[in-house]
Every structure is written in structure tokens, then in C-alpha cells.
Amino acid sequence: MRWPLLFLVLYLLALADGQLEFSPESTELDTGGLSRDSFPKDFIYGTATSAYQVEGAAHQDGRGDSIWDVFLRQPGLEVNNASGEVTVDQYHRYKEDIDLMAKLNFDAYRFSISWSRIFPNGTGKVNWKGVAYYDRLINYMLQKGMFINYLTFVSPFCITPYANLNHYDLPQALQERYNGWLGRQVVKDFADYADFCFKMYGDRVKNWFTFNEPRVVAALGYDNGYFAPSRCSQPYGNCTAGDSGTEPYVAAHNLILCHASAVQRYREKYQKSQKGRIGILLDFVWYEPLTRGKSDEYAAQRARDFHLGWFLHPIVYGEYPKTMQNIVKDRLPKFTKEEVNIVKGSADVIGINQYTAFYMQHVTVNKSMPPGYQNDWQVGFVYEKNGVPIGPKAYSYWLYEVPWGLYKAIMYVKERYGNPTMILAENGMDQPGNVTIPDGLKDTQRVNYYRSYIQQLKKTVDEGANVIGYFAWSLLDNFEWRLGYTSRFGITFVDFKTLKRTPKMSAYWFQKMLSRKH
Ligand SMILES: *[C@@H]1O[C@H](CO)[C@@H](O)[C@H](O)[C@H]1NC(C)=O
Ligand SMILES: *[C@@H]1O[C@H](CO)[C@@H](O)[C@H](O)[C@H]1NC(C)=O
Ligand SMILES: *[C@@H]1O[C@H](CO)[C@@H](O)[C@H](O)[C@H]1NC(C)=O
Ligand SMILES: *[C@@H]1O[C@H](CO)[C@@H](O)[C@H](O)[C@H]1NC(C)=O
Ligand SMILES: *[C@@H]1O[C@H](CO)[C@@H](O)[C@H](O)[C@H]1NC(C)=O
What start and end residues bound the annotated signal peptide (predicted)? Predict the structure, then answer.
């Protein structure tokens, strides 16, 4: 008699814990016809974060500095002198965060591994306390299903780990040793680090990415210097050193070789026994020609080549896009025959991070400007047409809500790159950091954003695009690079003083849309 009673009490407690603050019938949670049935049966839904943005514990358990720790230590550089030293402290609160993912019905979590937490000096001595952290994180994700099953009798499931090896945060030691991504030695050092992660975690992690947004690393790190390591030349930015005309291309070339070398290690040593999949995460803005004139069409195509093609073209076809070769000429490095062999075909899956779209127009090159990556595009960015903005704005200056841009971006990858296996690996929008509870929880604009973008994603799948998953950015409000804590991308509100997490309306929207009960 007592056991059934105990189960009943536990069951009711579990139900109460999952109680919606918003009624599922509420029109604000309208899923717009979306449900788990909208996509193929094994379609994966998750949320994404990155190590520097959520972990905190920057000086704990032997972690070494990354280039972002050092970059943000410049007084007065970052808004409110913010940094990721504590951020949302996932290093200590990962269980609470994974519990939340399970409660919201997500299937997967994309996190990144901090290279300098594993190898504080970039290479050499292993920091075993850092290694142990990712073991705890991964193991807890995989146990999650059993726990839920025991309490609530729903069918067993777990949070599937999607591990990314690098999200902007290069160990500072390597920056000092050989200028980081500019030094060819980084290719071997990255492959060794990747190899170590496959060996340590590959028995449980079956989904790997080498890099998140290497284009952002190369462009913002070396063309305008807005991101670490902040190298550039005049007039493209105010840096102490750099060359905007050459360094972005050298950094990107080494990033591609790092990626390819890591994939080669995985395929040769681990893939057969571990049976996983490896790929890369690329950011892609949809570039729509401002007018139907030929010159704007070409401008938009150049933009797509310089943005996505810079990385995806070598990975699929073994060379940089012809537009880039013609414009950048001998400032663009070349792949040797041996390099082409490891670069071409070096992804089982392509992650596309897609948030927004811009209009593109042709501009005449100013021949007296010194060379620079962005300048090489020979385009003008336009955000409205006939006085009508391309879409409603989020908080970030670059983020317009343009759901049809996602549709066009995915269909473009499908058509131009042979319909590779794709994951929509980041998508979301931000609110200003100063919103508070309860107003900040009613993120109606974000609900609309997710609904309309996922409807467009469904359309691409219905039309044959090989998209196998979707990840929202982000699970939580967190540290947003150059905006610090003044931008909130989370579906969960974080009080940055107490670090208390409170799901927003958009979190409940996902919970409802991803419900497994019919
Ligand atoms: C940031 O740090 C600089 C240098 O310590 C200081 O002058 C400035 O007031 C700080 N800014 C804020 C918003 O705290
Ligand atoms: C870091 O690595 C470099 C290069 O291998 C080495 O010279 C240096 O002694 C190492 N530093 C520490 C603290 O291990
Ligand atoms: C460089 O600094 C000067 C002076 O502060 C400023 O006017 C200019 O806009 C800056 N240039 C860039 C590209 O940030
Ligand atoms: C072309 O670039 C040079 C060098 O930056 C600058 O001085 C000049 O004003 C530019 N001309 C035009 C038409 O923008
Ligand atoms: C919050 O920030 C936004 C954008 O920076 C500003 O327009 C608004 O006035 C601020 N609101 C409050 C309550 O401070």
C-alpha cells in the first residue's frame, strides 16, 4: 500500500514542478500549427551556449586564460567593464540548467569545451580538474532521462550532448607563443587538443563540431579588431597591430586547416569505433539584392561567397569561391594538393547559424583604399527599401527579424552545396539587458520570432532540404561578447545579481511545441 502512495505523491510533485506559468491554451503560446510532427521523426531540438559565455569559474580548478579573458581586461573597453569571469556560473549550476532543458522538452544541448580549461598552456600538461568538469556535464545530460522516467512515467529520453571544440576562445598561451590563429603551428596543436577530447569524451559524445563561426573569428578578430585578439590596420579599426588586407585570410586558412586536421584525426582514429559524426558551425546572413539590377545581384552573390563560401566552398569543393580568388588574388592563401585532400569533404554535417538578412547593393571600389577583407566585398549594406525596414529590429544593432531570410539561406546551401546534412545550429533574438521581471518574461516578440522562423525551416524541409535539427540561441541570458550583459538572448531570464533562472514565455512556447504527449 505504501509504495503506490509514494509513487502517487512523487508523480503529483513532478507534475506540479512542470506547471506552466502560462496556460498552454493561452493564445500567446500559439504554436502556429508547429509540433514535433512538423518535422521528420528523428529531428533534434536543442538549445546552444558557449563556454566563455556561460561557464564562469574563469580562475577555478586550473583553467588558463583565453584571448577573451585578456582582451576584456583592458579597462573601459567593454560596456560596464563586463566579462565572462562569473557570467551565469554554469560551471556550478549545470545540473539545474540540464534539468530545465529536460523540463522544456528539449532533446539536445550544444555546449562548447574551453580549450584552456583542458590545456591551460594550450599544449602539454593536461588540467584533469577541467577534464572532469565536462565528464560531469556530459554524464548528467545522459542520466537525465532515467530520472524523469522514474518520476513521471514518460518514455525514457536524455539530453543528447552536441560538443563544440572551439567557440572564439583560443588559449592566450598560443596567442603569445606564435600569434594564435596566424601561426601555422596552431593546426597541429588544435588537432592534438581535438584528439584528446575525442579520446576522453567520444564514448559518450556522438556529435562533434570543430568550430563555431570561424568567419567571425577571422573578420572581427583581424579585419576590424572588434573581437579578440583585436588586430587590424587603418582605416578599418583602431588596433595596435595587424593587417586587415592579409591577416583575416591567413587566420581563416589556418582555421580551415585546423578543422580539417581534427576531422582527419577523428575519422582515422575514432569514428569507426565511436560511431559519431563531425562537422563545423558557420554563421550565415541572408544577402538579398536591393534591386533586380545585375550589379546588385552580383553584389549579393559576392557577399554570400565572402561570408559563407569562404569556409563552406573549400569544405565542399576544395577551393575558395572564384569571386574571392579573382578579387583577393595573391593575398588569398592557396591550399596545397595534400591540404585539398583533407579539406574537401571534411564535414559529415554543416551547422548553419542564421539570425537575420540584409539588402546588398553594388558600390564602386575606391581604388585608393588600402586592402581589407570587408572592403574586398565591394558592397553596400542596406537595411531598408523604399523606407520600409527589412524587418522589425531586435536589440542588437545588426539583428532584424526576417524569417524568409532563413528560408532563402537554407535553400541556397541546399542548391549550391549539394544539399549536405544540415543543422540550424543557432537562431534567436535579444532584448535589452535592462528589462526586469515580470515584464522581461513576456517576450512576445521572441515567441513570434521563433514561430515564424521555425515555420520557414519546416518549409525548407518540406521542399527537400536535408535539415536534421534545430538549436535555439540561447537557453539562458548570458554574456554577449561586446555587449556584456546589456543584451539578453535567453529563453530563460537570468537575474545577473543572484543568478536565479526564470523561464520566459518563449521557454514555455518551446515546452508546448515540443510536448511528447498527443
Ligand atoms: C571601467 O573601468 C575603468 C578603469 O578602471 C573606470 O575608469 C570606469 O569607470 C569603469 N566603468 C564602469 C562603468 O564601471
Ligand atoms: C608552456 O609551453 C611552452 C611551449 O611548449 C613551454 O616552453 C612552457 O614552459 C610551458 N609553460 C608552462 C607553464 O608549462
Ligand atoms: C578610431 O578612433 C577614432 C578616434 O577615436 C574614431 O574617430 C574612429 O571612428 C575609429 N575608427 C574605427 C574604424 O573604429
Ligand atoms: C577613397 O579612399 C581614400 C583613402 O582612404 C580617401 O581619402 C578618399 O576620401 C576616398 N574617396 C572616396 C570617393 O570615398
Ligand atoms: C533600457 O534600455 C533601452 C535601450 O537601451 C532604453 O531605450 C530604455 O529606456 C531602457 N529602459 C529602462 C527602464 O531603463
Answer: 1-18
